[in-house]
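Quick question, first post here. What does this chain look like in 3D?
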Amino acid sequence: MMWLSGRQRSLMLISSAVWIESTKVTDSTSGYIIDSYVSLRTHVTATVRSCFAALCQIRGVRRCLPAQHALLTLIRALVVSKVDYCCSVLAGVSSHLLDRLQSILNAAARLVFSARRSERINPLLRDLHWLRVPERIQFRLCVLAFRCLNGSAPPYISLRAFVGQPTWKVVATSAHLPP
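> Answer (accepted):
Ran it through. Tokens below.
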């Protein structure tokens, strides 16, 4: 069993090391939670819970804010940043978990525009220039790959990344080329 959690949670865990195939694994302070099934369901549940709590608090002070820009700044700082944190780890998780994270962004967009649940969400997300959660994950992975190729990624990632060459040959004949 492996625990990856924040500082407060790691203090609550038993601090003994676990050995997996002659490798010592201890709890980390990376900030995301992996459950025993390695499904990240616990991490997504905690993120959804904290984001909806933040949205409820923001909804309560929305009328006191001077402009929509202040509301949008609060939502980006307290909600969207939590959704984006460690989102590249979420590559390949189930669509159910991604839908739960998408519901956070949908609720935040509805809060910004004071929209009802029955209104379509795509125009609101487009007006905010927000990507949907699967596209956010893909964007983060592409940025990470770009940074690895250009040498601006952290060394612990760039040292493990390599550019592979295709193992097959592409054969083009003149019969298949366009005129």
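The first strand starts at residue 18 and ends at 20.
The chain is about 50% helix and 5% strand.
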